[in-house]
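Thread: Newbie trying to understand structure tokens

Hi all, I'm a second-year student working on a class project, and my supervisor (Dr. K.) asked me to get a predicted structure for one chain before our next meeting. I've only ever worked with sequences, so writing a 3D structure as a token string is new to me. If someone could post the tokens and maybe explain what I'm looking at, I'd be very grateful. Here's the chain:
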Amino acid sequence: MSGCGCRQSPIVIGGCRPTGAVCPPVEVLGGCSGSEPCQHCETIPLRDSAPYRVTATADSTDPTPYYTIANTHAALDPAVAQTILNGGTGTFPADGGTHNGQHTWLAGVVHIDPAALCGNPTSLTISASVHVHNDGPNTACQLYGRFALWNGTTPIRTDLLGPPDLPAGGDDNGVIQPTTVSLADVLAGRIVVELNLETGNDDGCRVGPKQWTVDSFVLAVQASAPGFGRPFLRTTCRNCAGVVTCTTDTLDGSATPYTPVPPVVPVASCQDGCSTARPPCISTDRGNAITRGSDGCLYAPDTPALDPSPCNAARNTTGGLLVPRVDLTGIAPGGNSSLERSVDIDVTELPGCPDRWRIGARLTPVSGFRNAERQHANLLAKTGTDVPIPESDIVLPEAGVYHIDSDVRYALGTATGGSGYIIGWLRDETTDTLLTSFTQIAVVNAAGQEQQGGTTHIMTEYTATSGPRTVRLHLMFVLTGGRITDAEAGGTDSNGATRMRFLKVRD
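---
Reply by user tm_fold:
Sure, no problem. This is what the structure looks like when written as tokens:
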């Protein structure tokens, strides 16, 4: 803007510009002399609530608390571990071949810079990724490692490394999906990233030791708070009647639009040091009708003129503008607004004048529940093999975002001593899509007789772009040493049942 007057070309920001023929401006406050007829645009600075990056590091620590394979573990050299956690390249050396099932571990405590926090967040979102390469000389055995996030001694996110039996020369990537953790736990040093890889021989797969090269470790931490996201510019153009013709949001006033993350808050135009030589601040309150035009002048809207069309029921009266009554009708209980929307709308008229209505809404989302009415699947007979459980099938009837969870019953034991584990995952059978990463259902590692039984929970959120979709539970038993005599899951026993549930949470 350059003072009053419209001799310059109209301002164009993000494709938003005045439209229509030039006409006299509405009443100008302040008597802006020399103004010529023009339409006007105004640009104001705002800030949204997009997540922002928080400076973070992972510092090498003793991995002993995270060992889950008894008597077959070793800690990576701390200096090498720190090099990897700094994003460099390090080596997990091969074992000498004297330990069956040997795994090597590293762990890093997540630290952040508190000065990088804005807006008093109470939680953070943490994600991580890493690349591993099997240097050989031998093939890895089945699912050969783990990339996990811990809170104290409790795992909160686990990625079992695969594909199974990665050959020498093969590559894989571990990913910890974005996970929400307490800021207090991070500041207390309780959040830990852990990586372990099979470096020894494995008699179960009949493979020897192998070495790994690990690199490209990336740790990402984000926080969010209302009004502490990205600054952007909102340009609003009005015609000569004061009617908004277009509104565009951009990051820098260019032609590239930006979609802000709500809520959006105003950036004060007059802070400390604001002088009378500056233009007056324009309130961003929705009730303020005064605007500043592209010529620097302030504009107030005219009294609205009524369209003389017989279809217009509004009219001027001695008491002011009269708007006709509108009757609203709700939706009967048990119905919904449409097949695509899972919401009931209730409308109740309240007595008195002017007319008032109480409007409410009820969610009516689709949901489902199923028990797996079958005996447990014998996973021991199919060790290392994907075992689908069709009796667990649930059908998502329509497009939408669903909360899906499963209770998986299991039994796992050894009569003479041994170690192994059961994993499970959910798959969209209609599109052959993996809904969850591998979840550890149960693990046993005993020198003598031990029998376990119980229930493990798998939970995820899944977006179906169309329906119907069939979701199924899959299971697998992995032997890591000794002899296991019982490995079964996915059915109903005297203590409970394997169950699948779904609830649509958004359209």
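A couple of things are worth pointing out once you decode it. The CA atoms of residues 145 and 197 lie 4 Å apart. Residues 1-15, 18-37, 269-279 have pLDDT under 50 and may be disordered. Feel free to ask follow-ups in this thread.
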